[in-house]
Amino acid sequence: MIIAIACDHGGFELKQRIKEYLRTRDDIKIADLGTDSEESVDYPIYGKACGEAVAGGKADRGIVICGTGIGISIAANKVKGVRCGLCTSVEMAELTRKHNNANILALGGRITAPGLALDITKTWLDTEFEGGRHRRRTDMLDEML
Ligand code: RB5
User: Fold this and answer.
1) Is any atom of ligand 1 closer than 6 Å to the C-beta of 73?
2) Is 104 helix (H, G, I), strand (E, B) or coil?
3) Tens digit of each residue's pLDDT (9 = 90 or more) over 13-40
4) What residue's CA is closest to ligand 1, atom 3?
5) What does the alpha-carbon distance between residue 84 and residue 77 come to, in Å, rounded to a whole number?
6) Distance from the CA of 101 to the center of ligand 1, in angstroms?
7) How much distance in Å is there from the Cα of 120 to the middle of ligand 1?
8) Residue pair 126/84 in contact by the 8 Å Cβ criterion
9) Does the annotation mark 66 as catalytic?
10) Residue spans of alpha helices (H) in 32-101
11) What is d(CA 22, CA 60) in angstroms, rounded to the nearest whole number?
12) 2 has a pLDDT exceeding 90
């Protein structure tokens, strides 16, 4: 599975931690779309880039990180075909896959401690969509843009 990962300066440190974990997995290839330092940048550019990579089929799923996770998730969700969920707990990570079929995970580098962010990421990567009644609703989401 190819995972596109992108962040702004507020998410850079956490992105490095998440990439360390992703590198330990044989089933994952990383497409890092930047940014590459803690120098100030604009999160819409990176949320859009990750959204386009996933919606365009260059990546199977994506992870976006800014300071809160809010701005970059809003940006990613403006790309048609993206269902990006901001998660601050493992339960949210599980449900955003099972119910929302989220194809991008958003994290807040200044909000969520690295250990919890890793647990969220692992759960999000390894939980499947339940389909059924949830598919009708995700289909409605996909028709909105
Ligand atoms: C950057 O300072 C900060 O606004 C950004 O990382 C993010 O939190 C926006 O939602």
Assistant:
1) no
2) strand
3) 999 999 999 999 999 999 999 999 999 9
4) 67
5) 6
6) 25
7) 20
8) no
9) yes
10) 43-55, 70-77, 90-98
11) 14
12) yes
- Write down the residue that tokens 């490095």 correspond to: 16
Please write the tens of the pLDDT for every residue from 33-77: 999 999 999 999 999 999 999 999 999 999 999 999 999 999 999
> C-alpha dihedral over 104, 107, 113, 116, to 10 degrees?
-30
Residue type, 85: G
What is the model's pLDDT at position 145? 79
Within 10 A of 124 (CB to CB), how many other CB atoms are there?
A: 22
Tens of pLDDT, residues 5-14: 999 999 999 9
Cβ atoms of 98 and 127 within 8 Å: the answer is yes
Mutation test of ligand 1: which of 72, 77, 107, 112 has the most ligand atoms closer than 8 Å to its C-beta? 72
